[in-house]
Amino acid sequence: MEIDYSKLPLRYIMCIDVKSFFASVEAVRRGIDPLEAWIAVVSDKRRPGAVVLASSPNVKKYCGIKTGNRHFEIKDKRIRIVNPSMSLYLDFNRKIHEIFRSFSADEDINVYSIDESFLDVTSTAHLFGSPYEIAEMIKDRIRKELGLAVTIGIGDNPLLAKLALDNESKKNPTQIAYWSYEDIPHTVWKIPSLTDFWGISRGWKKRFNTLGIYTVKHLAHFDKDVLSTKFGIMGLQQYYHANGVDYSIINKPAVFKNKGYSKGQILMRDYTEENEIIGILEEMVEEVAVRLRNHGMSAKSMGLYCGFSSDETGSHGFGISKRFKIPVSDTRSLLQYFKNAFYDNWSGEKVRQFNISLQDIEEDKGHQITLFELEDQKNVRIDSCLDDLRDRFGRTAVFKAHSLNNSSTFFERAGYVGGHKSLSEVPGDELEETKRF
């Protein structure tokens, strides 16, 4: 082996996962221990084909229902099916990270997903004890203060922490596992399947199989020059990962550049009336335009996809993009662009889906106006006033009259966060006073 582990980064890294996060929060709000609950959170209870977003450990273990299954596959009557409550999940996520901040500096916390995070406790270990002791304290506090159960993988680098989480800690009675460089032959190389290894998909498995690589140990001992020749730098990365090598440093956060704003909606029925279709399109454009302005941005191009009903013959829809002559942020101008694009491509088909986007965004610095653009400036002032009212009193404080039509989805979508319900309703006889375990 050419790898000198003594020269690799040596940190105390934790990868912390909340067990069945969405379902566990739904259990806690109902006063049920998440580990004893029978709950499945689906994207929309009204749709038989709705996706299962999370299920309680019991539901996974005894019914095989997990994330990615469909609503209609849930047959066991013990399972309580609920809509998501995204605002509640975000609130619990915030509280979890407040606990993390008690043990690690902000720059040493990396949010991997809403239910999984990495912590570097190297700099604080002298205050709280060994990494294992810190993991125990974090686990106990989250359980006591929020009622949630977590599993924790600890490693000498982020990769080993993640592998420890996925392959051992969830099976341990303590729900904690520690994988070090010294243990790699007995941990990393013992992972039973290539696809059990983080970062190796079924596609990668097939590629490796063509070379006679069937296990992580095979990959770790394969000729890295052959992997480099066959797969380039990604082949080398997989080789080094199989040997537990990871140079990632958590306290060097990535900088993300927002390249656009988008909104998609699959309608609950076919829309055939022109005024209903345009009403839906206007609501969506206005919502994205508000987000654009709230971030002080303007857009230089747009995208529109319109999907037709599945019972239509011929085209399934159309998708187009258009560049603007100047950056745009006012609602009226954007509406006109989208409506023109729609009318240029619609011939009376039944509409079932819209996806819109504002792209090539940049900071809105304004531009030199002409006498012919004075009307546009009035629209900008109107937008500013409406945005201020919505900021102060909520998204439904000001709306267009057509949003009162039965065909409108405005008020329903106003209660959504990240494409799911912000807070689902829970009948009074179902929801007890929230208990903390």
Strand and helix layout:
Blueprint: E1 13-18, H1 21-29, E2 39-42, E3 52-55, H2 57-63, E4 80-82, H3 86-100, E5 109-113, E6 116-120, H4 125-128, H5 131-146, E7 150-155, H6 158-169, E8 176-179, H7 202-210, H8 216-220, H9 224-231, H10 233-242, E9 260-271, H11 274-294, E10 297-308, E11 317-328, H12 331-345, E12 351-363, H13 374-393, H14 410-413, E13 416-417, E14 420-421
Parallel strand pairs: 2-4, 7-8
Antiparallel strand pairs: 1-6, 1-7, 2-3, 5-6, 9-12, 10-11, 10-12, 13-14
Helix pairs in contact: 3-5, 9-10, 11-12
* Mean pLDDT over the residues: 84
Q: What is the SS-derived class?
A: alpha+beta
Low-confidence stretches: 367-374, 427-437
Count up the helices: 14
Principal-axis shape equals globular
How does the major sheet shape up? 5 strands, mixed
- Give the number of DSSP strands: 14
Main sheet: strand order? 5-6-1-7-8
List the helices and strands in order: EHEEHEHEEHHEHEHHHHEHEEHEHHEE
What amount of the residues lies in strands?
Answer: 15-25%
Task: Supply Rg.
Answer: 26 Å
User: What is the CA-CA span between the terminal residues?
Assistant: 49 Å
**Portion of residues in helices?**
25-40%
